[in-house]
Protein: Core-2/I-branching beta-1,6-N-acetylglucosaminyltransferase family protein
Amino acid sequence: MTKKAPPLARRQATRFSFKLLIIFCVSLSLCAFAFFKLHSQSELTSSTPYSRRRPRISLETFDGPPKIAFMFLARRELPLDFLWETFFEHGDVSNFSIYVHSAPGFVFDESTTRSHYFYGRQLSNSIQVLWGESSMIQAERLLLDAALEDPANQRFVLLSDRCVPLYNFNYVYNYVMGSPRSFVDSFLDVKEGRYNPKMSPKIPRERWRKGSQWITLIRSHAEVIADDEVVFPVFRKYCKRRPPVEARKGKLNFKLQKQHNCIPDEHYVPTLLAMHGLEGELERRTLTYTVWNETATKMENKGWHPMTFGYANASPERIREIKGINHIYYGTEYRTEWCRNNSTSAPCFLFARKFSQAAAMRLLSDDSVGGSEVSSSLDGHP
Structure:
């Protein structure tokens, strides 16, 4: 027995329902495509595609002089606080602010520091920092985030607990505020295998940079770093220090030493700013002088480490030599950076590290950065 064909009305209803389903699916796809395109365009047109947005405060929106935020990255206490006491006491308190990232729970008061300028200046949300780990750049970001809360802060200087000023406050203030650029050491890293291909595509190889972690930033660049939510997680996952050689690991050491030896604090800031296309707004050099000990074993067990200035090598003659440096050569780029401040020739360095307490005391006793020189002669070039 043959089946009867469905009535005409039923066939028409089926076709109509099928057409409605097709129209619904097409409409849904178009809506999804439109939403994706709108979202993509908003990201492309954003001035900070790698960051969340923070309200930016310009010089016109607050009443008072612009300030420099001095941000100290400390292990615990500040061993050279007595030298910085002399530095800050010759400055106008309305021209600077101080922030310290120290060990969690450490408090700066009359029992832990010799300078009242540091009382209560520690961050309440500090973290435990390990050298060569992403916690180092997270601490820097916490300092920037805290300093950005004050709209008067228009320049941001990152310093170590062993840094010393080479000039008096007025000279440093005029130098830093006189430039519309950030001072960020940034150069191509072509010799070392620190770039991990797993970082791509979020961090392309052509944007990979290296430089000193001791930076001086204008406010807009500080916001880019503090607000970054894309590049930092990639660094935390893939930029790791190669483990040191240990005798108990035997032949495993050779395998471990083939890993990428990525030091986050030497790459994060210059790479992030390069990804934002901001290198044209930088003086691509640091303002902090460091002498490097270039000794290393075949497996880089020791590697390069900053030399510590002791009493003997912190003489007035040595300090004058550092102040007299007017250019820096970058071998990987065959580039000589002649040091300028707002297009005017200037000394390259305002600060130096690492200094022992004895060396810092000599700077004061020799009037290299203290005494009469702090209050007068350093207002101009040395």
Q: What stands out?
A: The radius of gyration is 27 Å. Residues 60-243+250-287 form a domain with the Spore Coat Polysaccharide Biosynthesis Protein SpsA; Chain A fold (CATH 3.90.550). The first helix runs from residue 8 to 45. Residues 310 and 359 are 5 Å apart (CA to CA).
